[in-house]
Amino acid sequence: MQIRDYIIRRLMILPILIIGTSIIVFALTRIGGSPIGIYLSHEMSPAEVQEMKERFHLDKPVPVQYFYWIKGVSQGDLGWSGVASAPVVDVFPKKFAATMELAIAAGIVAVSLGIAMGTFAGARRNKISDHIIRVVSVSGASMPLFWFAILLLIIFWVWLGWFPIGRSDPNLFEAIPHPTGFYTIDALLAGNFSAFRDAIWHLIMPAVALGYGATAIIARMMRSSLIEELQEDYVDAAKAKGLAERVVLKKHARRNALVPTVTVIGLTFGFLLQGTVVAEIIFRWPGLGRWMASAVLRGDQATIMTYVMFTSILFLFVNLVVDIIYAYLDRRVVLGD
Amino acid sequence: MSPDNLDIQNSLDKDLIASVTDLKVYFESKQGMVHSVDGVSFDIVDGEMMGLVGETGCGKSVTARTFMQLVQSPPGMLAGGNIKFRSKNIKNGSQVIDLLDLSENQIRELRGERIAMIFQDPGKALNPGLTIRTQVAEVFQEHRENDVLEEAGLKNKLTGVTEYFVKKYIKQEAGFLVTTLFKIPPLSTYKKKIDSGINRLVAEALEETQIPNPTKVMERYPHELSGGMKQRVMIAQAIACNPDLLIADEPTTALDVTVQARVLDLIKELQKRHKTSVLYISHDLSLVRRICDRIAVMYAGQIVETGDAETIFNQPKHPYTQGLINALPSMSHERGKLEAIEGIVPELIEPEPGCRFVSRCMRRKANCEEIDPKLKPISEVNKSHKVACLLYEA
Description:
The complex is a heterodimer of chains A (337) and B (394). By secondary structure, chain A is mainly α. Chain A is 75% helix and 1% strand. Chain A has a two-stranded antiparallel sheet with strand order 1-2. By secondary structure, chain B is of the alpha/beta class. Chain B is 34% helix and 21% strand. Chain B contains 14 helices and 12 strands. In chain B, the strands form 2 sheets. In chain B, strands 6-7-8-3-9-10-12-11 form an 8-stranded mixed beta sheet, with helices on both faces. In chain B, strands 2-1-4-5 form a 4-stranded antiparallel beta sheet. In chain B, strand 9 (294-299) and strand 10 (302-308) form a beta hairpin. In chain B, helix 4 runs parallel beside helix 10 (227-239) and helix 8 crosses helix 10. The chains are: A mainly alpha (337), B alpha/beta (394). Chain A binds chain B through residues 232-234, 236-245, 247, 251-252, 255-256, 329-332, and chain B through 65, 68, 70, 104, 108-113, 116-117, 119-121, 124-130, 138-139, 142-143, 172-173, 221, 223, 234, 237.
């Protein structure tokens, strides 16, 4: 099957998956009870409470409530966020951009560093550099994010003062427009270099903290699959052709070693999104994760449902991309069957 | 390969292409040093097919890989000996070099160019992620940049920086940036010419091994071809530069019986046509007899008998060779139990002195366990027939 046909087919299945996800998300959230509490205050009379229930259709059976939710969503109404004191749909894009900026930065750190470290270690198996990389990656995979993030915070913010926390210097960013919500891109579009530098500067510490665990996982996967590939006959055959060590490693072994690594990279994306909650709280990053954490604590169901739905959809797309890359790398993969 | 290498020590009999002397390759293991190849000596006559026969684990593949310095180290290590090789590069004339003395860069120049290798399992020896074209092309890119330039119609047409980068690009020495530049205009016109030049060279090479429809086959990935076809691709790749010595490491073992015969005939035919010397490694004595001029029989890391194929078959002297030939099923014998050599191959970890075959030998003498037999000519008449056995020592 052609890759293009495969993508079309996968995209056609996507709506079914999304509807299924929405049912599960709604059901699981409603298990936590009625969301009415977030809309009420102590001063309201029972009649007013009843009126609020009717207004939000919370007096109806739960399955009916689901359809009201879907109806709202399809009309662009994601509900009222008690935490943000604003409609979810107004707050969401900004927070989403903030989180994506952080997650993508962490992803870039993890993928580039992970593949580079894994290749380096795998090609120098049992040499000193391999051992050093092993120590670095084992600690990355075993240190909890909240602990490592606080460690970075203490060293680089409190002691050394090299990196700031938060997302940006407000003085720089109030002046420029925010068409994308990604501060780095906005700064570049505005041609404001000092703002760009500031955005990057704020991004480094949380991105490293968040990406470290994923870096470790990717590096270990890359190392072991590269070592496996280097044992293969085709590596000897390539050497027997007179090719340089560098060509054998980069053109022959590394490409095949990437196949299992790409699967792991796809899985790590979920790991990163999950990590944004902790990283955003610790580094005071105004993103979805922090918003989500308070929403969960206060039973802000509209926010929770939106967040879970959105990350699920994102995940479906990431998996699709991973499958396509997979097929590109490993020509033996037959798509679709 | 400086002229210094051309000293007296590197002399080689005129009719030989290569000579292995007292080769020792050991492997480190937790139990001790494994003496995989322990004092192997044999000659390969120029233009002939030399068979190296022995059972699994006797060190024949390691011996072959040592020719190209392809033994991984560690755990492998060269414990002694040398391999003299007559490199017949037309430009520099022929010269004799010790293959084990060469640096990584020097041996790289020979690999695939003067010495080539066919592997046992073509399914594993081809990279699953690259097209046939890409893989065969690499031989030309590495060793025949001038041919590529000529086929591309770029020879003597480039100057200065362009020539420098085009050559780097052909030899796959260019970095990421330059490689990317070749994909976009104006350099992409060179890439197109180079690609079509390479295509012609690859198609020609594939045609040499009787692959039907080479231009179609070369766009395929290895998994889309049959085993026999893959081995033909491997052979095409190996003989692309018309090497002086072709090492065939059990090239038909992984193939179907019907395909085996055809691949074997192909190797034999190419060998005759190009007058290539071949070191043919196999565990199959009758197969080797069919195609080889001379045979060396290997047992537990040592050569036990060597001579021309007919002598080895008709007058085997070493008890191991005799046992092997007896064990061959034959049309002239009655049906019945197959003969076998009793016992198993000894451990090669820190071996004791004495004959390696002693525990399985039916004709052993009292001092066989103490004295190492030396490989010696058996008679004054036929000096090429050598045996390592105390039975024949005066």
